[in-house]
């Protein structure tokens, strides 16, 4: 008998503009090579990320020109709403539900700002009820998929029998600034991409054997002294990306005790996991996670596949991995793991 929220369905959506990694390298060379002395030394990062293709909110030509806050915000609102409508519509159709059946919406993003928030703008657009409970979540960055799903699970647990819709959208490419010729911006150009996902959750009212994967538990850990490891610089032109080359080292040195402590609280070890669902942070991050999470490495192939096909879509990425893992027929306890600004590890324990 369990009142754990059930994951009814997961759906994803990608913007229409798809770039091969060779195309983005050619554009980056056009933008940065004449202004950045070390560009040729940095260029191999495009091949070393493990990314073959990515999707973006705008055509490649858009990224060749500078854009201000206002223009970026307008593109963010338009494209983010289109992607969320697509992902939410897919999820509702798959579950045989209507927008009016949804009782609460949790919406996570860190790559743009809209007020009213995105899920509020979707109410009339999709036909959600006026009394829908809304929880916009901003600032979790790449951890927003794992922690946002956990927040949606908490809400579902507090509202047994009600339908909770979790939405996540990230348009990372909108932070690209051609006027900033820096190594960090080159690496960001090689790594980040855009995407959205949706999930529907419901907690049973009687503790019976309701169908669907269970959202069992969640936790987060924010390491002291790491506030500048990852985040945004807020500047006149928009967001400027901040991330440290020390992230893989930090994972290797500090993550294992956090994971083990979380699992110990559930009377589990890594060996008890049937698999993992990891955010696609990049090749070096996935290599570090594989080392730390061993022997629980089933599912890492799904992370590598999503990274190769879609790049790093920040918070949305881990939901793509979850979708792929579920479609593969995987079962048993899985640890969903993502790392974001703070510097924070987000962990969610699922039973697929």
UniProtKB/TrEMBL annotation:
This protein's record includes keyword Transferase: yes
Keywords attached to this entry: Acyltransferase, Plasmid, Transferase
GO biological process, any: polyketide biosynthetic process
EC class (word): transferase
GO molecular function, one term: naringenin-chalcone synthase activity
Every Chalcone/stilbene synthase C-terminal domain range: 220-344
Family matches, as Pfam families: Chal_sti_synt_C, Chal_sti_synt_N
Domain (Chalcone/stilbene synthase N-terminal): residue spans on this chain: 72-202
Assigned EC number: 2.3.1.74
Active-site residues (renumbered): 142
Key word Glycoprotein present: no
InterPro entries: Chalcone/stilbene_synt_C (IPR012328), Chalcone/stilbene_synt_N (IPR001099), Polyketide_synthase_type-III (IPR011141), Thiolase-like (IPR016039)
Domain of life of the organism encoding this protein: Bacteria
Family, per entry: Belongs to the thiolase-like superfamily. Chalcone/stilbene synthases family.
Protein name: Chalcone synthase
Organism: Azospirillum lipoferum (strain 4B)
Organism phylogeny: Bacteria, Pseudomonadati, Pseudomonadota, Alphaproteobacteria, Rhodospirillales
